[in-house]
Amino acid sequence: MAALDQPKLAAARLWATARLPYLASAVFACPIRAEPGLGTISVDRGWRLHADPALVEALEVEQLGRLLVHLCGHLIRDHADRAVRLGVAAAGEGRRARWNRCADAEINDDLTVSGCVPDVAPDLPGDLGCDDGKLAERYLEHASDGPRRWDCGSGADGCERPGDGLPAIGPGQRELLRLGVAAEIQRYAAQHPGTVPGGWLRWAESVLPSRIDWRRVLAAEVRSAVAAVSGMVDYSYRRPSRRAHASPDVVLPTLQRPVPEVAIVCDTSGSMHDRLLARALAEVEGVLTKAGLRGGQVRVLAVDTAVQAAKRVSRASQVTLAGGGGTDMGAGIEAAAALRPRPRVVIVLTDGFTPWPARPPRGVRVIVGLLAQGGLVPMWEPPRWARTVTIDE
Ligand SMILES: [Zn+2]
Prior knowledge:
393 residues; Rossmann fold
């Protein structure tokens, strides 16, 4: 038979995402192409599933569901590009088959807990004479020989097959899907401690390091600025509250003096990436709340060439990102400094495609959150008198 049993595949997708919800966006992203006579169900480098209708017919819904999870594992973990980097994709069938088994083992040892190891591609690290929890590259060095159990396609070994065709999903979109899955894994793990296997967690951490970094750096910058201008000691010589020893189990507030006014200047010019800006704003809000600033103390200015709005907000979601022309953050900083009461800390969120004033407004500490977009280099470097934190996806 030549047609795919679509309801069965839909049921298999649901089966898969019910067990591993954090993989849902990837499991549902891949389009499926029927390929009678293919002899396998596989994925290609461009995230398309190729399915032999006869095999879809032969496998149970659960078996298909396990296989879908497994194949998405190859895509999410970027086994194709990793195989290309190692020279495996261009090597002979023997080496590619060996890589396929090693990549299978890397995925499968994280699927045993949820009962998702596919019956048709069951290799585990132990089957290769290796320990659990390693990467395919490591297994490739130490694996014992054996036949390829299942051809998982070019999405696993990077070697293009005749039926691959154009990518179903472009490289940029694939990267976004990976980041989305990584974020889902971290969120799910936080909500359901102990349920996400270590391999998935380590992978998620490995693809999201910059996000964690800039949050930490931004938080440190904001806290240090707030502490410095509110008359607290310098950050380099900061001591815990003297009363802390009296109640060791209670965390006493470090900011005991009135906290300073903070203004956020948002670049809303056409060059800005709305989603990234919204995310950065939400992050800043979180940082300020932790630093002891409540709503009403933070004002947000939407700025392109002119100041569109200055609004006192308690949540980043209340901000309307008006604007969309050219950019001049100097105007924004000036407007922020002119607010009454005067802010002591100004946080500028911008992509950097803006001229900057030569000097900061007097008595105002400026932090620049530089929103990096696809490796574009801004024409003007952020000024040295400001602390700059690069924010990326
Ligand atoms: Zn596989």
